[in-house]
Design a protein that fits this description.
The chain folds into 2 domains: 2-112 and 261-278, Roll (Diaminopimelate Epimerase, Chain A, domain 1), CATH 3.10.310.10; 135-254, Diaminopimelate Epimerase, Chain A, domain 1 (Roll), CATH 3.10.310.10. The chain is 18% helix and 42% strand. It has helices at residues 27-34, 73-85, 166-177, 215-227, 270-274; strands at 2-8, 11-16, 45-50, 57-62, 68-69, 93-98, 101-108, 113-120, 135-140, 143-151, 155-160, 187-195, 198-205, 209-211, 234-239, 242-248, 253-259, 261-267. It has an 18-stranded mixed β-sheet that branches. Bound molecules: 2,6-diaminopimelic acid. 2,6-diaminopimelic acid (API) binds next to helix 2 and helix 4. The site of 2,6-diaminopimelic acid has 20 residues, from helix 2 and helix 4.
Length: 280
């Protein structure tokens, strides 16, 4: 099975075209492909392009635990680069349908940078678009955190802190991700505001764990920082893997821009997928 691997600021994805398989990918196959010992290894699978009735392309996004995500900012930037590299697009702006809504992507610098319109940041995990930003207190192990829900199609819980560290994400991220108050689990970001145009985040992703960067997390965290009046509408989001630029309009529609790097074209032996019965 042919694949193409890219990373966006260290958040790596494997692109698999549907014609590489004679069936829809199973959860066990996704887990195997993403496994860094039994498979190729990645923070997720991008399965596409699929036909769309409303957009130029449709994309399905899967986490390493086999769950399907409504949106992935880095995944969308990588998929846009893939479409450019494989000449499936003849112009630099095109639309992509995801489970979490339709987005517009624009490729720059031969695909080394991609801009994606991520849609509206909403301060809820449900479908209610009208909710204002709302403070929530969550008791996790020995800690009480104050955080804010946000969604860009996928769910996020953003926790402003004074002392930011990767340890916070590793120690509390998995517990918050699975907390019963989040009906579909949640992505988690710990946020430090550096100035009105710069934030720093540490990320624990739903279904993927600790990642070096995340486009939808960057968008959600920037939306919360803006909603709290701590940042203006153009925000640089610093993460361990690098920087993403977010711009928000007055209705909180977000545009995200960042780098994409191609890693490899590859061929996964079907034996690895058959072996998964002994693995997962
Ligand atoms: N784990 C996320 C999807 C990937 C998000 C992240 N890789 C990004 O770039 O937005 C979820 O289940 O919602």
């Amino acid at each position: 099975m042919k694949f193409t691997k890219y990373h966006a600021l260290g958040n790596d994805y494997i692109v698999i075209a549907p014609n590489e398989l004679d069936h829809d990918m199973t959860s066990a196959e996704i887990k195997t492909i993403c496994d860094r010992h039994y498979g190729v290894g990645s923070d997720g699978v991008l399965y596409g392009p699929l036909p769309s009735a409303s957009c130029d392309f449709k994309l399905r996004i899967f986490n390493p635990d086999g769950s399907e995500a409504e949106k992935s900012g880095n995944g969308l930037r990588i998929f846009s680069r893939y479409l450019w590299d494989t000449k499936l697009v003849t112009h630099d702006t095109f639309s992509i349908e995801t489970k979490g809504g339709e987005v517009k992507a624009t490729v720059h610098a031969e695909g080394k940078r991609v801009t994606v319109d991520m849609g509206k940041v909403r301060y809820t995990h449900g479908s209610d678009h009208s909710l204002a930003i709302r403070k929530e207190t969550i008791q996790i192990a020995d800690q009480t955190f104050v955080g804010y829900r946000a969604s860009v199609g996928n769910p996020h819980f953003v926790i402003p802190v004074q002392q930011l560290s990767a340890d916070l994400a590793h120690q509390y991220g998995p517990l918050i991700e699975q907390d019963a108050r989040f009906e579909n689990r949640t992505n988690v970001q710990f946020l430090k505001v550096l100035d009105r145009h710069t934030i720093q985040i540490e990320i624990w992703e739903r279904g993927a764990g600790y990642t070096l960067a995340s486009g939808s997390s960057s968008t959600a965290a920037a939306g919360v920082a803006c909603g709290l009046g701590l940042c203006d509408e153009i925000i640089s989001v610093n993460m361990p893997g690098g920087e993403i630029k977010i711009s928000l309009d007055q209705d909180l529609f977000a545009t995200m821009q960042g780098a994409v790097c191609k890693i490899a074209n590859g061929e996964l032996a079907m034996e690895a997928l058959e072996d998964y019965r002994n693995t997962f």
